[in-house]
Specification:
3-stranded antiparallel beta sheet; 28% helix; alpha+beta
Length: 186
């Protein structure tokens, strides 16, 4: 750019040759553009790793964790307390010993799944020890005869956690029905 006193600066490369100098032959041969050149749109590169989020239906929502098991679903029923021995072979049922009021509530409304207060279940061989422990407790604690409930093992298998303390005490495998095992596997 050059500037002369009293005039604004001029950029000669935009106007052609400087005054007093000849234009180069190469500059004279260049055609002058009157309109800006249009650019062709670039083809959009598609990323094969990322799919269109709106092309497919939404995935199904995860099911909320269960908090309750129905009595009919578990085949929950009361069984006579007699006939259980410590040497009884395991079967396809798990057993639970409760007071009559709690047992009737479980039979009518089912079993809750609670992490804070899990339900203790045992195999057939542990029922005799459990009944003995309940009758040996201080008088008044279990004033009525406890009720033995049974339920299908296969229906609660995914919500069971082994209970080593009661297993050692009852000399039979014991489990806690809490529902927490299900959430850990997800």
């Amino acid at each position: 750019m050059t500037s002369k006193p009293g005039r604004p600066p001029v950029q000669f490369d935009l106007l052609g040759a400087q005054p007093g100098k000849k234009a180069h032959k190469a500059d004279a041969d260049r055609p002058q553009r009157t309109t800006p050149a249009r650019r062709s749109p670039r083809p959009k590169a598609e990323n094969p790793l990322q799919t269109d989020l709106f092309a497919h239906p939404l995935p199904p929502r995860p099911k909320p964790p269960r908090t309750h098991l129905d009595a009919e679903e578990l085949r929950l029923s009361a069984v006579p307390a007699s006939g259980f021995s410590p040497q009884a072979a395991p079967d396809s049922w798990l057993y639970l010993v409760e007071e009559p009021d709690t047992a009737s509530q479980f039979v009518t409304s089912g079993l809750p799944l609670r992490k804070s207060h899990p339900i203790l279940l045992t195999e057939r061989g542990g029922v005799a020890h459990w009944l003995t422990k309940m009758t040996d407790d201080p008088p008044g604690l279990f004033a009525t005869t406890p009720v033995v409930l049974r339920l299908r093992r296969a229906m609660v298998a995914e919500w069971l956690e082994p209970d080593p303390d009661h297993t050692a005490e009852f000399s039979a495998p014991c489990y806690l029905l809490s529902g927490s095992r299900q959430e850990q596997e997800r």
